[in-house]
Amino acid sequence: MPTPEEIAVWDAEAAAFDEPADHGLHDPVVRRAWRELLLGLLPEPPARIADLGCGTATLSLLLAEVGHQVDALDFSPRMVELARRKTASTTSVTVREADAFDPPLAPSSYDVVLCRHVLWAMPDAAVALERWLRLLVPGGRLVLVEGRWSNGGGLSAEQTAALVEAAGLVASLTRLDDPAYWGRAIDDDRYVVTATTAG
Q1: What is the mean pLDDT of the chain?
Q2: Sign of CA pseudo-dihedral 85, 24, 175, 44
Q3: How confident is the model at residue 44 (pLDDT cuts 50, 70, 90)?
Q4: What is the pLDDT of residue 143?
Q5: In this model, does residue 186 exceed pLDDT 90?
Q6: How far does CA 106 lie from the centroid of its chain?
Q7: For position 194, what pLDDT does the model report?
Q8: Is the CB of residue 169 less than 8 Å from the CB of residue 142?
Q9: Which residues of 121-130 are buried (b: 16+ CB within 10 A; e: fewer)?
Q10: pLDDT > 90? residue 121
């Protein structure tokens, strides 16, 4: 369970969370880049997707708009409030207040588990991955957008791929160094790692 201090940190981040181009996706170029990236990684809609650590649910809404059904969760009450407001116009997204480290979702129920910039923050990344993989149907897809940022935080691509391989899956790595994803040039390591469970 997150501590009150951790919850307070992310509650404080919520108001400005959508200001970075890749969070709010207000720039049509950035929005299109993420849409095309995700559509290329996910099964054809409609798929059932768990968006763990969803923040303000920008990606949840993006995926709902193309026909997916998304269950999103975040442990920050303020993030959840903003996510529910953002997705109020669609019945294809449900948002709940819960901890991504131990998501209270039904096992073997999701075609996709999606996490963006979440694995690095888990108290035990290997345990988190084990729990997330239980949510997937046979042949389900794990999609991890992560980074090792210039401030020293995060996970390297090699670390994330190794965690996925240690969970018994074959990891596929794509570097996300195109400024279109971020609204600016970057000088750190940003990437997506995907894997598919046995069918």
Answers
A1: 97
A2: positive
A3: very high
A4: 98
A5: yes
A6: 18
A7: 98
A8: yes
A9: bbeebeebbe
A10: yes
pLDDT of residue 95: 98
> HSE on the CB side for 29, CA within 13 Å?
8
**pLDDT of 1:** 84
- Give strand pairing partners of 82: none
User: In this predicted structure, what is the pLDDT of residue 96?
Assistant: 98
* Tokens linked to 69: 């059904």
Give the C-alpha separation, 99 to 111, whole Å: 20
Q: Residue 6 corresponds to which amino acid?
A: E
Contact partners, residue 166, CB within 8 Å, separation at least 6: 126
Confidence of residue 199 (pLDDT cuts 50, 70, 90): confident
Contact 53, 128 (CB under 8 A): no
The pLDDT value recorded for residue 119 is 98
Which residue in this structure is represented by tokens 């996300």?
176
- Single out the residue of 38, 51, 72, 58 nearest to residue 176, CA to CA: 38
What is the radius of gyration, based on Cα positions, of the chain? 15
Cα–Cα distance measured from residue 195 to residue 164, given in angstroms and rounded to the nearest whole number: 8
Cis peptide before 28 (omega within 30 of 0): no
| CA dist., res. 182 & res. 33, Å (int) | 9
